[in-house]
Design goal:
Blueprint (H helix, E strand, L loop, with lengths): L4 H25 L4 H30 L4 H10 L1 H34 L5 H7 L2 H4 L2 H12 L6 H6 L8 H11 L2 H14 L2 H8 L4 H30 L2 H7 L9 H10 L3 H46 L1
Helix pairs in contact: 2-15, 3-15, 4-9, 4-10, 4-12, 7-9, 7-13, 9-13, 10-12, 11-12, 12-15, 14-15
């Protein structure tokens, strides 16, 4: 004997109401008191303001404290400062290009193949994060210095690495090694290799597959890694300090120049150079947020496309 339709409707309505009440009670039980929420919000905002916003504002305030003309003169009219800016613009791009090539190759190998030593390679990618930059610089000195392991051979062939631009590039490349690869590995694993396999099966060569299939799929993650790598390269201090010799007008990069001007009690000049690095950090932050949004959208789209065939089967 079937229940009347009205009884079924009433039963469903009561069940829905009970479920709503249960969820509301569950949410209320897990909701923090208002004083806790506002207290934590105030604490987080105050900490960010004290440790980040105030120093950033102070950098620009001190840099422009003597006026725009003085700021410009501190950057352009000082030959040692100008050389440090130009040297940074040489070292950072070369290190970024080197890590770009290595990062794409490492991410491709780790995400597309299973081979002995794969876990070790993945772990070694994080080595520059765990090793102090000063230790990394010392390692390069012990290898390529005049008294180092390769020192006699380099001296006999007239090659100078330590206390010169090649040493700065090596130190910067080591410190920034993981950025591109670490950004690409999760992107390539999430996208999968189905499109690449399809391209190869249709007759595409390896380079055609990379330029027309792989690169468009990873472009946002790749650009994100390059931006972070460049910001880190321009701001590197520890490793570069060790291998540069801190020679003004020859091996000083922008971070080293900031420290030297500060030691010489030239605060306007020091803050002027620091403001350029700070501006780079702010621009990097904005680009980072945009690229994170683009990367997340691409990953969600790839997950939807990968899930569609599975649901169809």
């Amino acid at each position: 004997m079937h229940k009347p339709a009205s009884n079924l409707t009433t039963t469903k309505a009561l069940a829905a109401r009970a479920e709503t009440a249960r969820k509301a009670a569950h949410g209320a039980a897990h909701r923090d008191p208002i004083w806790v929420r506002w207290g934590l919000t105030f604490l987080a905002t105050g900490t960010i303001g004290l440790l980040i916003v105030v120093p950033v504002v102070n950098v620009f305030w001190q840099a422009f404290g003597d006026g725009v003309e003085s700021y410009w003169n501190n950057l352009v009219r000082d030959p040692d400062t100008l050389h440090s800016i130009l040297l940074t613009l040489i070292v950072a791009p070369v290190a970024v290009v080197a890590n770009l090539v290595f990062g794409v190759a490492a991410a491709w190998a780790i995400s597309r193949f299973r081979f002995p030593g794969r876990s070790l390679l993945t772990a070694l990618l994080d080595l520059p994060f765990s090793v102090s930059p000063v230790v990394a610089g010392l390692m390069l000195v012990l290898l390529f210095g005049m008294q180092g392991y390769f020192g006699p051979w380099l001296r006999d062939h007239g090659v100078k690495i330590i206390f010169s631009t090649p040493g700065l590039i090596l130190a910067t490349s080591f410190v920034t090694l993981p950025f591109v690869a670490r950004e690409l590995i999760p992107v390539m694993e999430a996208i999968g290799s189905e499109e690449e396999v399809a391209a190869v099966s249709l007759g595409a060569s390896g380079w055609q597959m990379f330029w027309r299939v792989t690169l468009p799929n990873i472009k946002w993650g790749l650009l994100y890694g390059v931006i972070l790598c460049n910001a880190r390269a321009m701001g590197e201090f520890g490793a570069v300090y060790v291998v540069s010799g801190h020679i003004a007008g020859r091996t000083d990069t922008m971070p080293l120049r900031v420290e030297k001007l500060f030691q010489e009690y030239n605060n306007p000049g020091s803050f002027a150079v620091a403001s350029l690095l700070t501006l780079l950090a702010l621009v990097t932050l904005v680009i980072k947020v945009v690229l994170e949004h683009k990367t997340r959208a691409d990953l969600e789209e790839a997950a939807r496309l990968n899930a569609a065939p599975a649901e169809a089967t």
